[in-house]
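Thread amino acids onto this structure.
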């Protein structure tokens, strides 16, 4: 691949976008303003990139676009890669958004380069809004202590997964995981240490489940796993693997500990509701506690 051309840092592409707002929209060049209006119809960055490519192709022979967010998320792509590319650093209101690659079969001349920059000047501001929206949604659906999804996200996913399993007539299982005698950690070493134990428990559980499984912190020291396409026998095997991995944790933050969990397991039955699936797993969890803890119980 030939050495790609580089744009001037930030200002050439984003000078107008830095000023965009309700009172400054007119600062964008006309084609950038038109693209900005089109892109603000959606808060999906991938859809925005698709729309930007479609708009740019009406004026220039562009093969594809690739956007790599500044904070390391997976790149977004529209169209196809090609022999030539031009790189731009996208900035909105002095905040770096990431790098944009513009692919073409041939390099652009000076006039085409100027037209491309005019077109893409309408991209940074709506893209920033979309990325901010996604970040806000992620924060709202994740537990800030452990980083796994939270109870609100679990409630939404449970309804969705039950409906999907019933529609497709596939299996779905639920695991409710509860740390045994967790209060001892807070009482002996303080709540900060208890938080460290919860983070370790969550990380160990996350590394024990399969990529298709969904993990949530339900509250306190209680976690939930939703396992699609999984019957009761395989769900119990998964639960046993989680239990065994957690039992191997013997040290957290320079303190030797004994950490165990009890796990209740249930599988979706015909005409089950999300509530019924949860209640059976919860009942199984309490049976595991009554039978001596550090065990898996099916419900």
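Threaded sequence (299 positions):
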């Amino acid at each position: 691949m030939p050495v790609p051309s580089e744009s001037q840092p930030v200002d050439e592409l984003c000078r107008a976008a830095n000023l965009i707002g309700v009172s400054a929209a007119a600062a964008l060049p006309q084609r950038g303003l038109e693209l900005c209006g089109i892109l603000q119809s959606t808060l999906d960055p991938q859809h925005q990139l698709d729309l930007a490519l479609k708009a740019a192709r009406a004026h220039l022979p562009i093969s594809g676009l690739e956007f790599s967010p500044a904070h390391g998320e997976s790149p977004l792509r529209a169209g196809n890669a090609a022999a030539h590319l031009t790189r731009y650093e996208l900035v909105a209101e002095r905040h770096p958004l990431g790098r944009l690659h513009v692919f073409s079969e041939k390099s652009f001349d000076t006039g085409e380069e100027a037209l491309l920059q005019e077109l893409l000047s309408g991209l940074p501001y709506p893209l920033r809004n979309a990325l901010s929206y996604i970040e806000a949604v992620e924060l709202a659906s994740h537990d800030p202590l452990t980083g796994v999804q939270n109870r609100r996200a679990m409630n939404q996913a449970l309804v969705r997964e039950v409906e999907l399993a019933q529609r497709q007539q596939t299996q779905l299982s639920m695991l409710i995981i509860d740390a045994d005698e967790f209060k001892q950690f807070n009482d002996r070493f303080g709540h900060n240490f208890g938080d460290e134990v919860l983070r370790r428990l969550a990380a160990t559980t996350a590394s024990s489940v399969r990529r298709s499984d969904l993990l949530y912190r339900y509250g306190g020291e209680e976690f939930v796993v939703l396992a699609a396409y999984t019957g009761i026998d395989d769900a119990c095997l998964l639960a046993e693997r989680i239990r065994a991995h957690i039992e191997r944790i013997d040290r957290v933050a320079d303190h030797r500990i004994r950490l165990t969990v009890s796990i209740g397991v249930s599988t979706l039955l015909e005409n089950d509701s999300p509530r019924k699936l949860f209640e059976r797993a919860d009942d199984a969890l309490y049976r595991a506690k009554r039978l001596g803890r550090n065990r898996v119980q099916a419900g």
